[in-house]
Amino acid sequence: MTTSSMDRTLILLRHANAESGAADHDRDLTSDGWKDARAAGAWLHAHDLGADEVLCSTAERTRQTTQALWEGGCCETDVRYEDRIYNAHPEALLEVVRDSDEDASVVMVVGHAPGIPAFTSLLADGEGSPQAHELLAQGFPTTSMAILTFAGHWRDLAFGAARLDRFHIARA
To answer: What is the pTM of this model?
Structure first.
């Protein structure tokens, strides 16, 4: 993807399906979760959507989702594990993204519901692809990705300042 220094892409990804039973922070992906996350990586690769920076929750299921993305073909990059993403509300997620590397044109956040879905809705506020918004309105299941665009510096990102260009639910 070719972008100018002010054109940004934000990929918001809800982790893949996780097992139940363990402490929430320590839950592993299910076998289907691993497959779906690899399918997400293949989709990102097919759409030339590699990230310059990945911001990932510290939960085990988000770490494993990120690993499976690489296994699926998404370009590997440095991952910054952020406690602030785990069970974060939209305002906290906004602060995490504002702290992104200013040289990064594409930033990916791997997190959780309900924070990631609410953050997506607040950032785009109805702007962008009608089809993507329709899919988003139907829910944000595990291994869903919202692809948003934003013109400006990450530190200036605000609710209502982005466009929702694509919404994809990865399934193996």
So the answer is: 0.94
Pairing of strands 7-14, 79-82: unpaired
C-alpha to C-alpha distances, 28 to 111, 131, 133, 147, nearest whole angstrom: 14, 32, 30, 25
What backbone phi and psi angles, to 5 degrees, belong to 66? -60, -45
Q: Cα 124 to the chain's mean position, in Å?
A: 14
Residue 134: name the closest of 97, 94, 167, 92 by CA. Answer: 167
User: Is the domain 7-169 a CATH 3.40.50.1240 member?
Assistant: yes
**DSSP, res 103:** T
Tokens of 144: 């869903």
What CA–CA distance (Å, rounded) separates 145 from 131?
A: 14
For 54, phi and psi rounded to 5 degrees?
Answer: -115, 130
Closest to 168 measured CA to CA, from 123, 129, 136: 136
Which token pair is 129? 């692809």
10-residue mean pLDDT profile of the chain (172 residues): values are: 66 96 91 97 95 96 96 90 96 97 95 97 94 95 97 96 97 89
Paired sense of beta strands 7-14 and 144-151, if any: antiparallel
CA angle 22, 59, 136 (to 5 degrees): 105
